[in-house]
User: Fold this.
Amino acid sequence: MNLEFPYQLTTFLDDEPTIGEPVYYGENGWYPQVALKRRFKAVGITENELLLKMTEYFNSKRSFEIRTGELTQPERMPVKILEIAPNPELINFHNDLISFLGNAILSRYPERDGANYLPHVTAEFDGKMVINDKKYINQTFDIKRIYLLKDISDENSVAYKSFDL
Assistant:
């Protein structure tokens, strides 16, 4: 992890962390999640201004559904994942979010945005299964809440703020 790009936007599949709780290596383990925007930092605005901007964006959006697929390991990834079924609403959400935030953020991985966005659930990390993949294969989930995660160490992030759709 690089603490220079401390933020991510995710949604959790079922169990949700409390604000301030670690989402990878805390007492409740790794929370199954879908990254909506990978690692980024605020540019030219304060964190409070970023939070206000996100609140404005998420207040204008409505909930939607996603469906997980099978466990796989894409060539371009070093981890096993659960695929997310093609979903124009999710892709539009991702693209609109990046467009809305515009120059207020700088992405650590801009090559993973837009047409290269691959929505997924990380199932294996560092050679270990981090979620019970069988519980999440081929399931439908309502996306009603988005979380801003913030890095607290080189290996962990906390649920920093939540936004209802």
